[in-house]
Amino acid sequence: MKVLAAIPARLGSKRLPNKPLLDGTGLPLVVHTARNAARANLVDEVVVVTDSDQVATQCYQHGLYVVLLMCDAWCGTVRIAEAVKRGLLDADVILNVQCDEPCLPASVLDELITLVRDGDDRTIGTIVGPLTSVSQWADENLVKADCDYGGWCHHFARSGWFTRAHGHVGVYGFKRQTLLAAAELPQSDASKVWSLEQITWICHDKNHTSPVNCVDNAPFKIRAVFAPELPLSVNTAEDYQLFVQRYSVHEAVR
Q1: Three-class secondary structure of residue 154 per DSSP
Q2: Closest by alpha carbon to 102, among 189, 199, 23, 203?
Q3: How many structural domains are present in the chain?
Q4: Structural domain for 172, as ranges
Q5: What Cα–Cα distance (Å) separates residue 233 from each residue in 42, 150, 164?
Q6: 213 or 34, which is more confident
Q7: How far apart are CA 7 and CA 45, in angstroms?
Q8: Long-range contacts of 74-79 (CB under 8 A, 24+ apart)
Q9: N or C: fewer beta carbons within 10 Å in the chain?
Q10: pLDDT at 81 over 70
Q11: Domain with 79 in it: what CATH number?
Protein backbone atom coordinates (compact mmCIF):
# COMPACT_ATOMS: atom_id res chain seq x y z
CA MET A 1 0.00 0.00 0.00
CA LYS A 2 1.56 3.28 -1.13
CA VAL A 3 1.29 6.32 1.13
CA LEU A 4 1.77 9.83 -0.23
CA ALA A 5 2.09 13.04 1.78
CA ALA A 6 0.97 15.96 -0.37
CA ILE A 7 1.69 19.52 0.76
CA PRO A 8 -0.52 22.18 -0.86
CA ALA A 9 1.42 25.44 -0.92
CA ARG A 10 0.06 28.78 -2.06
CA LEU A 11 1.19 32.34 -1.55
CA GLY A 12 -2.21 33.87 -0.83
CA SER A 13 -2.31 33.57 2.98
CA LYS A 14 -3.92 36.66 4.48
CA ARG A 15 -2.57 36.16 7.99
CA LEU A 16 1.01 35.45 6.90
CA PRO A 17 1.78 36.50 3.30
CA ASN A 18 4.18 34.32 1.27
CA LYS A 19 4.17 31.75 4.09
CA PRO A 20 5.70 28.83 2.12
CA LEU A 21 8.74 30.91 1.17
CA LEU A 22 9.60 32.34 4.60
CA ASP A 23 13.27 31.50 5.10
CA GLY A 24 14.36 32.91 8.43
CA THR A 25 16.05 29.57 9.18
CA GLY A 26 17.91 29.51 5.87
CA LEU A 27 15.34 27.13 4.39
CA PRO A 28 11.84 27.93 3.08
CA LEU A 29 9.05 26.83 5.39
CA VAL A 30 7.62 24.50 2.74
CA VAL A 31 10.95 22.64 2.65
CA HIS A 32 10.89 22.19 6.43
CA THR A 33 7.34 20.80 6.23
CA ALA A 34 8.18 18.41 3.41
CA ARG A 35 11.34 17.09 5.05
CA ASN A 36 9.53 16.64 8.36
CA ALA A 37 6.68 14.68 6.74
CA ALA A 38 9.24 12.39 5.10
CA ARG A 39 10.42 11.31 8.58
CA ALA A 40 7.30 9.22 9.10
CA ASN A 41 8.07 5.53 8.64
CA LEU A 42 4.88 4.82 6.69
CA VAL A 43 5.21 7.71 4.22
CA ASP A 44 6.57 6.50 0.88
CA GLU A 45 6.66 9.79 -0.99
CA VAL A 46 6.30 13.53 -0.33
CA VAL A 47 5.20 16.00 -2.99
CA VAL A 48 4.46 19.73 -2.94
CA VAL A 49 1.38 20.77 -4.92
CA THR A 50 1.39 24.44 -5.86
CA ASP A 51 0.19 26.99 -8.40
CA SER A 52 3.21 29.22 -7.80
CA ASP A 53 6.33 29.25 -9.98
CA GLN A 54 8.23 30.77 -7.05
CA VAL A 55 7.31 27.95 -4.70
CA ALA A 56 8.06 25.34 -7.36
CA THR A 57 11.50 26.85 -8.04
CA GLN A 58 12.46 26.82 -4.36
CA CYS A 59 11.28 23.25 -3.96
CA TYR A 60 13.20 22.08 -7.04
CA GLN A 61 16.33 23.76 -5.71
CA HIS A 62 16.04 21.74 -2.50
CA GLY A 63 15.43 18.43 -4.22
CA LEU A 64 11.69 18.14 -3.60
CA TYR A 65 9.18 16.57 -5.95
CA VAL A 66 6.70 19.23 -7.13
CA VAL A 67 3.43 19.26 -9.03
CA LEU A 68 2.81 22.71 -10.55
CA LEU A 69 -0.92 22.78 -11.12
CA MET A 70 -3.14 25.62 -12.26
CA CYS A 71 -6.75 24.91 -11.39
CA ASP A 72 -9.76 26.54 -9.78
CA ALA A 73 -9.53 24.97 -6.32
CA TRP A 74 -11.24 26.44 -3.26
CA CYS A 75 -9.03 24.49 -0.84
CA GLY A 76 -5.86 22.44 -0.71
CA THR A 77 -7.70 19.12 -0.66
CA VAL A 78 -9.44 19.94 -3.95
CA ARG A 79 -6.08 20.90 -5.50
CA ILE A 80 -4.53 17.59 -4.43
CA ALA A 81 -7.54 15.64 -5.75
CA GLU A 82 -7.27 17.43 -9.08
CA ALA A 83 -3.63 16.36 -9.34
CA VAL A 84 -4.73 12.76 -8.71
CA LYS A 85 -7.49 12.97 -11.32
CA ARG A 86 -5.01 14.28 -13.89
CA GLY A 87 -2.65 11.40 -13.20
CA LEU A 88 0.04 13.62 -11.69
CA LEU A 89 -0.13 11.91 -8.28
CA ASP A 90 -1.33 8.55 -7.07
CA ALA A 91 -1.30 6.44 -3.91
CA ASP A 92 -3.59 4.24 -1.84
CA VAL A 93 -3.48 6.61 1.16
CA ILE A 94 -3.00 10.32 0.61
CA LEU A 95 -2.25 12.86 3.32
CA ASN A 96 -2.97 16.56 3.00
CA VAL A 97 -0.23 18.08 5.17
CA GLN A 98 -0.74 21.81 5.29
CA CYS A 99 2.35 23.89 4.66
CA ASP A 100 2.18 25.49 8.11
CA GLU A 101 2.77 22.16 9.92
CA PRO A 102 6.58 21.74 9.99
CA CYS A 103 6.71 20.15 13.46
CA LEU A 104 4.48 17.08 13.24
CA PRO A 105 5.85 14.08 15.17
CA ALA A 106 6.59 11.20 12.81
CA SER A 107 4.92 8.73 15.19
CA VAL A 108 1.65 10.69 15.11
CA LEU A 109 1.68 10.78 11.30
CA ASP A 110 2.21 7.01 11.28
CA GLU A 111 -0.74 6.59 13.65
CA LEU A 112 -2.89 8.72 11.34
CA ILE A 113 -1.90 6.63 8.32
CA THR A 114 -2.84 3.45 10.18
CA LEU A 115 -6.23 4.91 11.14
CA VAL A 116 -6.98 5.82 7.51
CA ARG A 117 -5.71 2.50 6.15
CA ASP A 118 -7.93 0.53 8.52
CA GLY A 119 -11.01 2.78 8.23
CA ASP A 120 -13.92 2.65 5.84
CA ASP A 121 -14.41 4.74 2.71
CA ARG A 122 -16.45 7.40 4.53
CA THR A 123 -13.77 8.10 7.14
CA ILE A 124 -11.31 10.98 6.85
CA GLY A 125 -8.48 11.08 9.37
CA THR A 126 -7.00 14.06 11.16
CA ILE A 127 -4.98 14.97 14.29
CA VAL A 128 -5.96 16.75 17.51
CA GLY A 129 -4.11 17.58 20.71
CA PRO A 130 -4.84 18.95 24.19
CA LEU A 131 -5.52 22.60 24.91
CA THR A 132 -3.33 23.45 27.90
CA SER A 133 -3.59 27.22 28.33
CA VAL A 134 -6.11 30.03 28.35
CA SER A 135 -4.28 31.66 25.45
CA GLN A 136 -4.80 28.54 23.32
CA TRP A 137 -8.53 28.52 24.08
CA ALA A 138 -8.76 32.19 23.12
CA ASP A 139 -6.60 32.03 20.01
CA GLU A 140 -8.83 32.09 16.92
CA ASN A 141 -5.87 31.10 14.75
CA LEU A 142 -5.89 27.74 16.57
CA VAL A 143 -8.87 25.77 15.28
CA LYS A 144 -10.83 23.79 17.87
CA ALA A 145 -12.35 20.34 17.27
CA ASP A 146 -15.36 19.03 19.18
CA CYS A 147 -14.01 15.52 19.55
CA ASP A 148 -15.44 12.60 21.54
CA TYR A 149 -13.47 9.89 23.36
CA GLY A 150 -13.51 7.69 20.27
CA GLY A 151 -11.82 10.39 18.23
CA TRP A 152 -14.92 11.25 16.17
CA CYS A 153 -15.07 14.95 15.37
CA HIS A 154 -18.52 16.50 15.61
CA HIS A 155 -17.67 20.04 14.59
CA PHE A 156 -14.86 22.57 14.19
CA ALA A 157 -14.69 26.26 15.02
CA ARG A 158 -12.18 28.98 15.81
CA SER A 159 -13.66 29.71 19.22
CA GLY A 160 -13.14 27.29 22.12
CA TRP A 161 -16.64 26.94 23.48
CA PHE A 162 -16.88 23.14 22.94
CA THR A 163 -16.98 21.17 26.19
CA ARG A 164 -14.89 18.48 24.47
CA ALA A 165 -12.61 20.92 22.67
CA HIS A 166 -9.22 19.85 21.40
CA GLY A 167 -6.75 21.80 19.33
CA HIS A 168 -6.89 20.79 15.68
CA VAL A 169 -3.79 20.14 13.57
CA GLY A 170 -3.88 20.93 9.85
CA VAL A 171 -3.49 17.43 8.45
CA TYR A 172 -6.05 15.17 6.77
CA GLY A 173 -5.74 11.57 5.66
CA PHE A 174 -7.78 9.92 2.92
CA LYS A 175 -8.04 6.70 1.05
CA ARG A 176 -7.71 7.52 -2.63
CA GLN A 177 -11.40 7.02 -3.41
CA THR A 178 -12.40 9.02 -0.33
CA LEU A 179 -10.25 11.96 -1.40
CA LEU A 180 -11.77 12.05 -4.86
CA ALA A 181 -15.33 11.81 -3.50
CA ALA A 182 -14.77 14.49 -0.84
CA ALA A 183 -13.31 16.86 -3.41
CA GLU A 184 -16.48 16.64 -5.49
CA LEU A 185 -18.49 18.41 -2.78
CA PRO A 186 -18.89 22.16 -3.31
CA GLN A 187 -17.92 24.27 -0.33
CA SER A 188 -20.78 24.33 2.17
CA ASP A 189 -22.24 27.48 3.66
CA ALA A 190 -21.04 26.46 7.11
CA SER A 191 -17.52 26.02 5.78
CA LYS A 192 -17.62 29.52 4.30
CA VAL A 193 -18.84 31.02 7.58
CA TRP A 194 -16.01 29.47 9.59
CA SER A 195 -13.38 29.49 6.80
CA LEU A 196 -12.63 25.83 7.49
CA GLU A 197 -12.60 23.33 4.62
CA GLN A 198 -13.23 20.26 6.79
CA ILE A 199 -16.69 21.43 7.81
CA THR A 200 -17.87 20.75 4.25
CA TRP A 201 -17.24 17.03 4.72
CA ILE A 202 -19.29 16.63 7.91
CA CYS A 203 -21.84 19.42 7.60
CA HIS A 204 -23.17 19.87 4.09
CA ASP A 205 -26.71 21.07 4.76
CA LYS A 206 -26.99 24.20 2.62
CA ASN A 207 -28.95 26.00 5.33
CA HIS A 208 -26.74 24.82 8.19
CA THR A 209 -24.27 27.45 9.38
CA SER A 210 -24.43 27.10 13.16
CA PRO A 211 -21.76 25.08 15.01
CA VAL A 212 -23.77 22.13 16.32
CA ASN A 213 -23.47 18.38 16.00
CA CYS A 214 -24.03 17.61 12.33
CA VAL A 215 -22.28 14.25 11.92
CA ASP A 216 -25.17 11.79 11.81
CA ASN A 217 -26.27 12.58 8.24
CA ALA A 218 -22.90 13.85 7.04
CA PRO A 219 -21.39 12.86 3.69
CA PHE A 220 -18.22 11.76 5.50
CA LYS A 221 -16.92 11.19 9.02
CA ILE A 222 -13.76 12.68 10.50
CA ARG A 223 -11.85 10.68 13.08
CA ALA A 224 -8.81 12.01 14.90
CA VAL A 225 -5.72 10.51 16.42
CA PHE A 226 -4.68 12.15 19.68
CA ALA A 227 -1.23 13.76 19.78
CA PRO A 228 0.25 13.96 23.30
CA GLU A 229 0.77 17.70 22.76
CA LEU A 230 -0.06 20.19 20.05
CA PRO A 231 2.84 20.67 17.63
CA LEU A 232 3.74 24.24 16.75
CA SER A 233 1.72 25.40 13.74
CA VAL A 234 2.81 28.48 11.80
CA ASN A 235 -0.31 30.61 11.49
CA THR A 236 1.05 34.07 12.32
CA ALA A 237 4.29 36.03 12.25
CA GLU A 238 4.69 35.35 15.97
CA ASP A 239 4.36 31.60 15.37
CA TYR A 240 7.02 31.78 12.69
CA GLN A 241 9.44 33.66 14.92
CA LEU A 242 8.98 30.98 17.58
CA PHE A 243 9.63 28.30 14.97
CA VAL A 244 12.84 30.06 13.89
CA GLN A 245 13.99 30.32 17.51
CA ARG A 246 13.34 26.64 18.20
CA TYR A 247 15.07 25.62 14.98
CA SER A 248 18.11 27.74 15.83
CA VAL A 249 18.37 26.14 19.27
CA HIS A 250 17.99 22.67 17.80
CA GLU A 251 20.73 23.32 15.25
CA ALA A 252 23.01 24.78 17.92
CA VAL A 253 22.90 21.64 20.04
CA ARG A 254 23.25 19.12 17.19
Answers
A1: strand
A2: 23
A3: 1
A4: 3-253
A5: 22, 24, 21
A6: 34
A7: 11
A8: 74/187, 74/197, 75/187, 75/197, 76/8, 76/10, 76/49, 76/197, 77/8, 77/172, 77/174, 77/179, 77/182, 77/183, 77/197, 78/183, 79/8, 79/49, 79/51
A9: C
A10: yes
A11: 3.90.550.10
